[in-house]
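User: For my dataset I need records formatted as: sequence, then structure tokens, nothing else. Please produce one.
Assistant:
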Amino acid sequence: MKTINKQVVKASVVICGLACGGTAQAVDVAISGFIRQEAAYRIGQEPNPLLRGSAYAKGPQTNTVRGNPVSEATYAAFTGQDVTNPASWVLPPAQFQKEDFNNDERWNLMATRAEVDFNLKFNENWTGFVKVRGYYTADIIDEYGKPNNFKTNMTGLNGDCGNRLEVCDRNYMIDLPAAYLDYNNGPLWVRVGNQQIAWGEALFFRVADVANGLDLRRHSFLDYASEEYADERTPSPAIRMSYNLTQQWEVETFLQMFQPTIHPRSGSPYAFINSPYQIRDDIGFDDYEDFVNGGIRFNGQFDQLGLQFFMVSRHNPDPVYRWGAGGQTALDPAFPVAPGQQKFSEQVFRASGLPGSPVPEGGGTYGSADWMGGAALGGLDGVEALNVLGRDFPFIGNFLTGIAGASAMLDPSGQGMLPNADIANGIWATNVQEAAPVFDMFFSILGDLDADIISSYPSENVFGAGGNYIFYAEPDTLLDQLVVRFEATYTPDRKWTNNMAREPLTHDEWITALAFEKYHRFSQNYPATFFSLQWMHKTASDFVGRPLDFIGGAVDKAGHGKPKGWLGDGWDAFSFAFQQPTPDLKWRYDFSVLYDIFGGYLIQPAVRYKPSAAWTVETYATWMYAKNTESVFSALEWTDEVGMRVGYQF
């Protein structure tokens, strides 16, 4: 793989070299680009809850070990105290004091972006394109240390970035999102090099757009909605070609090196994974970086009707997460085990602030309310996640079994703290009332906790079809030149994060989208207005990829499972957008809305001002609302912000 990386870099350098020596090489070169300042200011009352080491909890939190004679006796037993003498017990505090690291920073983004494009023409058949992108973000938050915005330790020219053609540090990245050669000869077209492959056409929704993952390290997906995923789509080296079989039919195929989706880094402004949990993309990506995705698509055009049929065989770029071993060997002596049994350092958790933990004391998850709240925001079942820990990590399983047995012996009724446990089948807790004191036993003994999350990218086959039809009617009527688009994909045995278990959740999934698009001129004095209305349905997951099996949890309840969509079990959403330029084209007014039928919405009005060919000023406001954690916006509801971009083109 290092050899392949060097070859790709050499090819990119050669292309850039040809651009620099355009006359000597008889190459037509066009250079353009821009530099832009980007800023976003939070206007909502609440900061990102996933930044401060806690999703819900701050300040005093109830310790459910206290106030229950059975759990108090069990705690005494596990800490080596005399269970026959309650008067002598040293019990944990009745409340956990959860430190709040939030400093109420108001700036979500303060960044500088520069892009330079090289368009090359060698002859009538050969052309090339190279885009160099640089992005720098200032340190605008300091919750407990400077944030790492970009380093992933996956790949890159120095091996610590997110893309093969990238150099980065914690607050900047420079990459080549495009560096390819095109060959055209009659019905044949070939593109070779680092590139994005965009097959989908839906606004907000990704149905046919299955070739590439997303890089969400810059502004997540919260920039201009009308730009869709052009900046986020992850490029990688590929060979892509198409051939016109007939006047109506074209076949297109590609082979592309695997490149995963990269989520915002834990502790960075737009993070949606709780800050005590470190995403170990480096471990996960090592097992997949040599894989190649491939796909084939047939496009047909028959007057007003367009058709497409495609199949993609890929490793899903969207990560499936599981717990990793904590590796905190400093505490192994404090928890001796029999030879051959799993050690403390081989289970998932680390005691925050102690040697071997990257999180400061007080920065980890602390208390059952904190655990359940974080699980709910992440679309996890916080109770079943406890059983997962017991099944996947014998150290924790033995601890849970010990609690079940000891508490039953100390309970006069014989039920104990886990009365419904089915230990033989890996089930210890069945509801929040049972799980909470068990979690609080953990936290009472160890303090606040952090852990590693390992990513994996299971293989899958995606089968899809789509079509579009252009209606013609009386000129200047709403139906004239109305474009209707439909896309659908079917993926058998798709995998999702299964409450962080080693074994992923598996379902077949259908994804469909129906779109209506039109340019309509309301006045001869104004340019046409663009409208888009779309509907999406997913049978097994929601917009951000959370499986529907576990959403809807809260501090006091586990995720209740799959809610009902409009077409049986599933998730549905609608989007609407319009754009209206002014007659002189200096101003453009945008409006976008995404509505989640489970109780949430995103609304974004925007204004674009272009006083000259060189300068562009854009401003927008984004509001989000989530009724509860069933909504896809629950983890992002805090992201009410006003943004501005000022750019100079050359």
